Amino acid sequence: FILTTVVFFFLAAKSFKREEFARFSLVDACVWMPLAGINYAFMCTAFVVALELTTLVNAFILANLASLIIIGCKFVMGHQVLLFEGIGALVGFAGALICTSAPADSDDS
Questions:
Q1: Model's pTM, two decimal places?
Q2: 92: Cα separation from own chain's centroid
Q3: pLDDT, tens digit (0-9, with 9 covering 90-100), for 75-95
Q4: Sequence-separated contacts (24+) of 15-20 with Cβ below 8 Å
């Protein structure tokens, strides 16, 4: 998981323009970027641990709820939710409903 974080860091860094790098402060580069990498590694590890403790469907739903939580928080806080964000949230919620209605006796392997 750490390896994917390192690889994605370089791809993300390559996508920045020079003007955007100029806006990075020392705190951004030394605190927030490593913290984002640590959080990504924690998310991936938590998904693997969740697979050991529950079914694949439940772990997948829990892993993908973050975007729905972000959209919900934007709505509750009074921020504008864009059309495609709302459509994506509805599609994600519909996918979660479909996954939860899957038969309980299905094989996860």
A1: 0.45
A2: 13
A3: 888 889 889 888 888 887 787
A4: none
